[in-house]
Amino acid sequence: MKVGLFTALFANLSFDEVIRRIKPLGIRTVELGTGNYPGDPHIKLDWLSSAAKLKEFQQKLSDQGIAISALSCHGNPLHPNKRLAEAHAETSRRTILLAEKLGVGTVIDFSGCPGDSENSKFPNWSPTPWPPDYLEIQKWQWEKKVIPYWTKCAKFAQDHGVRVAIEMHPGFVVYNPETMLKLREAAGPAVGCNFDPSHMFWQGIDPCAAIRKLGESVFHCHAKDTKIYTVNTMVNGVLDAKPYSDEKNRAFLFRTVGYGHGREFWTDMVSTLQMVGYDDALSIEHEDSLMSVEEGLTKAANFLNEIVIREKLKAMWWA
C-alpha cells in the first residue's frame, strides 16, 4: 500500500509545483480530477486528441517517479436537468477514454441522483420508507434511471479496460455498502467503490466492517477523517445542512487523518483493506476547514506513511 494525494487541493498550482511539494512528503501517487465537481487543472480531457501532449505528460510522470492511482470526475450524470446530466456523463465518458490512453485502470465518480419524475428540476434523495411516496420514488429512480445508465456506463468502461469506482456519499443513490453492492449486482464487476471512510463515520457506519462487506469491490481508497461532535449530535442528530464553515455548531466536520480517529483505527483500516485484497493508494483528500492545506497534508502524509511502513515491516517479518 502507498500514500497518495488527490491533487484538487492544489488546483491553483502548476503540476510541476505540486510534484515539488509532495515528493519530500514521500508521496509518489496522485489522483487527478478531470472535471464535473472537482476542479483540477493538472490534466485536460482535450489531451485525448493530442498524442504529443499525452506523451509529454507521461514522460514527466516517469521522470519524477510519479504514478496515477485514478482519474476522478465526480458528478451527477443522473441529474434531472438534462443539460447538466449530459455534460457530466460526457465528462465521465471522456475520462474513461483518457484513462485508457494513460494506462490508468480506475475512474472515480459519484452514482448521481435523479429527480422524482421526468418533469423534475432537482435531484430527490429520500432514504426513508415513509411516507410511502418515497419508496415509489426510489423504485422509479433505480428502474428507470440508475440501472439503465450504469449498466451502459459499466460496459463502456469494461470495453476500454477501465473500472469505475463509485464514491459512496449521502445525497446520491449510492451512499452506503448496501446501495453500492446493489448497483454492482445490477451493472456488473466493472463497477466498484472508491472507499472514503469520512462518509461512513457520520452515517454511523464502521468503516472496517464496511470494507469486509465490500470485499473485492473496493477499487480505490480516500484518506480523510471525520470528527463527530456529540455535544451537537445529542441535540440534533447527525443529519446536518449547516454550512461547513459553521464549525462550532455542526454535527461533524471532515478532518485530517488522525484528528477524528486515532492510530489504532487507521492501522486497523489499512490491515482490513489488505485482508480483502486491496494494496493500492491511500489518496489523501484534504477538506479540513480547521487546517491550512500545507499543515493538513503534511500531518496526513507523515501519519499515514508511518502506518504503511510499519505494516510493511510486519508483513516482511511474518514472511
Record the SSE blueprint:
Layout: E1 2-6, H1 15-22, E2 29-33, H2 51-64, E3 67-72, H3 82-102, E4 106-109, H4 133-159, E5 163-167, H5 177-187, E6 191-195, H6 197-201, H7 207-214, E7 218-223, E8 225-228, H8 230-236, E9 252-255, H9 263-275, E10 281-284, H10 293-318
Parallel strand pairs: 1-2, 1-10, 2-3, 3-4, 4-5, 5-6, 6-7, 7-10
Antiparallel strand pairs: 8-9
Helix pairs in contact: 7-9, 9-10
Instruction: Give me the CATH architecture, please.
Output: Alpha-Beta Barrel
Q: CATH H-level name... which superfamily?
A: Divalent-metal-dependent TIM barrel enzymes
Low-confidence stretches: none
Distance between the termini: 16 Å
Continuous helix count? 10
Shape field: globular
Question: Mean of the pLDDT scores?
Answer: 95
Main pleated-sheet profile: 8 strands, parallel, barrel
Q: Specify the helix fraction band.
A: 40-55%
Relative strand content? 15-25%
CATH topology descriptor: TIM Barrel
Number of domains: 1
Please identify the structural class as seen in this structure: alpha/beta
Gyration radius, rounded? 19 Å
Order of helices and strands: EHEHEHEHEHEHHEEHEHEH
